[in-house]
Amino acid sequence: MGVVPLTEILSGAFEERYGVPAINVFNDLTMEAVLAAAVERSSPLIVQTSVKTVKSIGGDVLWAMWTAMTAGIEVPVTLHLDHCPEREVISECLRLGWNSVLFDASKLPVEENMRQTVEVVAEARRYGAAVEGEIESITGVEDDIGSETAAQQQELAVALEFLRTTHVDVFAPAIGNAHGSYKQAPVLDAQRVSDLVAAHPVPIALHGGSGLSDDQFRDLISRGCAKVNISTALKETFMKSGLAFLESAAERQKWDPPSLFRSVRQDVVDMTGSLMTLFGSAGRAG
Q: In which residues is Zn(2+) 2 bound (predicted)?
């Protein structure tokens, strides 16, 4: 197995109605830890990088980390560029070897979004890569991309025209979900997922997964949300784990960075593994 196309990971998940965690990593520790969780739980995994992470660490460095950490890995994993409105960054990541990209042209008129997405799909196909598309902004700002303005849904016919014209491999609809931490329990339009899948069977990406209830996850996954994005939950786990360790270190006056890294890593592994079990991807790698 090892590194495989996004479509290979999602085809089984979509058909058998389980979800694959798509987790936004932001450094070497988080990348290694989520991969370790995939091996531990025998689960497929989508590792995601934001545009901000690509720019802050560097595409070349991220790619070197990825290839080193996935060498010899025996579970199916894939590398995805999340929410990217910048065509030049998409081109850079595809050239380096990313397996898939989300071209986020949701701020453009649908017609222009569709025209450019067709171009991105053609470019990605030359590298054997997949494309995720969206025509509606997901509410909330994540890694400097997005808006707090509530997303407007397009009519089903518009979404279907986009899917049939662009041939994207994954679709991310707005269903009342949001990036970041939910200030109150979200009211989700789960039926929209069912309607889209019934009319055009394509794996659905669930954005804004951090903070949804277990029942909401299970319901949406059963309707076709095969790719479940997690970003805020990882950031919170990483920083709260580090904070707790540092507070304890200050009390004990013991300063050992490797111990900090081991503690945070374990918390990230545990969080990722629990999501794999919840989403139903644990044990699916064989």
A: 104, 134
Helix (H) or strand (E) holding 239: helix 232-252
255 within domain boundaries: no
Domain enclosing residue 51, as ranges? 6-235+272-279
Q: What is the structure's pLDDT at 153? A: 77
Question: Who contacts 82 (Cβ-Cβ below 8 Å, separation ≥6)?
Answer: 22, 24, 48, 49, 50, 51, 102, 229, 231
Nearest to 135 by CA among 116, 149, 122: 116
Nearest to 201 by CA among 47, 29, 13: 13
Question: What is the pLDDT at residue 209?
Answer: 77
Say if residue 135 carries a ligand binding annotation: no
Q: What is the DSSP letter of 27?
A: S
**Does residue 150 fall inside a structural domain?**
yes
Residue 232 among known ligand-binding residues: yes
Q: Provide the phi-psi class of 132: left if phi over 0, else alpha when psi is between -120 and 50, else beta.
A: beta
The total number of structural domains that make up the chain: 1
End-to-end CA distance of the chain: 9
Region 35-56: mean pLDDT is: 98
Domain annotation covers residue 69 = yes
Q: Quote the CA–CA distance of 52 and 57 in Å, as a whole number.
A: 9
- Residue 212 falls within a domain, yes or no? yes
For 131-185, the pLDDT digits (tens) are 999 998 765 445 555 444 555 678 999 999 999 999 999 999 988 866 455 455 5
CATH number of the domain that residue 208 is part of: 3.20.20.70
The answer to whether the annotation marks 204 as part of a ligand binding site is no
DSSP letter string, 94-140: HHHT-SEEEE--TTS-HHHHHHHHHHHHHHHHHTT-EEEE-SSPPBE
